[in-house]
Amino acid sequence: MSALIMDGTSVATSALAETAERVRDFTARVGRPPVLATVLVGDDPASHTYVRMKRSRCARVGIGSRSVELPATTTTAELVGLLAELSGDPAVDGILLQHPVPGHVDERAAFEAIAPHKDVDGVTTRSFAAMAFGLPGFASCTPGGILRLLDAYDVPLPGRRAVVVGRSPILGKPVALLLLARDATVTCCHSKTADLAEVVREADVVVAAVGRPELVRGEWVKPGAVVVDAGYNPGNVGDVEHATARERAGLITPVPGGVGPMTIALLLEQTARAAEANAGLA
């Protein structure tokens, strides 16, 4: 029997409707909409596509967007200076630095130039610490979106064994923290994990976030497990061998249409929250 598809597009649509109402209330009270500044460095086609999508969603819910596009030759110092300037601009409520940046740029230094109260993408060490300690702050958007999707499908997490394949600072590590905070027992896997197949076979919940097409084979999936594929590779291929995994899993996300829409929905919700806090309404 095939797994039930976890429709991120549908769940995100409902979340965006709630954010739109929140934005309308903010705009009526403050006299301007919340504003998200997006910063894109270089000419990566996928990054340009993602930023266009985010601006389109901003317009749909009434959030203003300010787009800053920088050449691939931009230095770390120049990028840090721009992000510091946006952080100090009272007309900007949230800041998104599109990942990845060109290789010569110190991405971590750039992320840390974003003021924590405008870090609506949840990429600073301050946001990471807030997730780790359960403090107020902004969640990393893809991990936070994954948790929202699991909630929407009533996936119980306390006591469940969750396996995260991937350990990046903006996806693998934070989603592991968020799952741990929900009382799941979490194992983080990576390129040096021995017997990855055996580890995945024990998982009640699998989150694939490694950026390698179909690394997680369908036959590794425990019957009835929940499979969240956070990968997106050329050709609309995820990190999970979807066709085979779907025949074994209980719930599974599609690629595209699973995690991606939830990421954007959470980004815009957190932008609205930041605007409220910045205006003294929260």
TrEMBL record:
PANTHER family associated with the record: C-1-TETRAHYDROFOLATE SYNTHASE, CYTOPLASMIC, C-1-TETRAHYDROFOLATE SYNTHASE, CYTOPLASMIC-RELATED
Higher taxonomy: Bacteria, Bacillati, Actinomycetota, Actinomycetes, Pseudonocardiales
Catalytic function, reaction form: (6R)-5,10-methenyltetrahydrofolate + H2O = (6R)-10-formyltetrahydrofolate + H(+); (6R)-5,10-methylene-5,6,7,8-tetrahydrofolate + NADP(+) = (6R)-5,10-methenyltetrahydrofolate + NADPH
Pfam families per record: THF_DHG_CYH, THF_DHG_CYH_C
Name the UniProt record assigns to this protein: Bifunctional protein FolD
Pathway assigned to this chain's UniProt record: One-carbon metabolism; tetrahydrofolate interconversion
Annotated Tetrahydrofolate dehydrogenase/cyclohydrolase NAD(P)-binding domain residues: 140-277
UniProt-annotated binding residues for NADP(+): G166, R167, S168
EC numbers on record: 1.5.1.5, 3.5.4.9
Highest taxon listed in the record's lineage: Bacteria
Record InterPro entries: Aminoacid_DH-like_N_sf, NAD(P)-bd_dom_sf, THF_DH/CycHdrlase, THF_DH/CycHdrlase_cat_dom, THF_DH/CycHdrlase_CS, THF_DH/CycHdrlase_NAD-bd_dom
